[in-house]
Amino acid sequence: MAVPPDGRLDEEAKGLLRLIVERQAYRQRMAANIRGHGLKFLPDLAAKLRVTEELAESLRRLATLEEIYEAIGGIDLTARVMSRMERIPYPATRLELAACLALTGRAERAVASTYARCPCQRFARLAGELQAADRTHDAGEEERFVVFAADPPNRVQAQRYWERWLTLCLQSLGRPGTPGDERAYALGLRDRRAADLVALFIEEVEPLRAAGGLDWPDLARRGVDLPRTLTQRMRGEGA
């Protein structure tokens, strides 16, 4: 049974929250699909069991998101996000799976951190769960990718993996400066604007990039809009 939305949400806030829930459902479905696909790359039973548990958690969160969506007037959340799933690639190797999990996990935590005080209390609790989730397996895969990337003969392939999943993660964070982004922040649905969220994510993945000896790609050419000051900082042109 769906839980009624928080009484402080007016119709405008509900409309914006529906969009936010759709984006979160997109990320959770992506996480579930990738983990299901990635099982074939994991040779040992313990790793397979851990990823299966994480997949089940993603599906449970999807079910919760569907209930929240219905409670705020949404209809058929699955249909709203399925068309977007077509643009998501699947890792082709275990090393690409490692890069994928390292980046998507960090993006998930960064997004969740912005909704801790969302007035829709059930969505805020879900965000808290995402932040607190056990990332032991992802951390191990991240180390695997860093070791691979740091070896010069692997650098070109590692850079391809890095750029592919970095682009997808940044696109999933939303476009900075849009009217919807500004209103969601003004209404208190999230406590950071998209530009601040993108900057947080870039800060989070910088140690991974540096450890692997990887380069920032030209994200504008890959369809990612970044604030000018952030682009300059990534290029080392300013603070």
Helix/strand layout:
Layout (H helix, E strand, L loop, with lengths): L10 H28 L6 H27 L5 H6 L11 H20 L7 H12 L3 H15 L4 H18 L6 H8 L7 H19 L15 H7 L5
Question: How would you characterize this protein structure?
Answer:
- The protein has 239 residues and is an all-alpha fold.
- The chain has one domain: Ferritin.
- The protein has 10 helices and no strands.
- The protein has helices spanning 11-38, 45-71, 77-82, 94-113, 121-132, 136-150, 155-172, 179-186, 194-212, 228-234.
- Helix 4 crosses helix 5, helix 4 packs across helix 6 (136-150) and helix 4 runs parallel beside helix 7 (155-172).
- The longest helix is centred in the first third of the chain and has 28 residues, at 11-38.
Features:
single chain; 239 residues; mainly alpha; Ferritin; 67% helix; 0% strand; disordered N terminus
State the gist of this model.
With 239 residues, the chain is mainly α.
Q: Could you say what the CATH topology is called?
A: Ferritin
Span between termini = 50 Å
Structural class category: mainly alpha
Helix content: 55-70%
CATH class: Mainly Alpha
What is the CATH superfamily?
Ferritin, core subunit, four-helix bundle
The tally of helices reads 10
* Beta strand %: under 5%
Return the CATH architecture.
Answer: Up-down Bundle
Main beta sheet: none
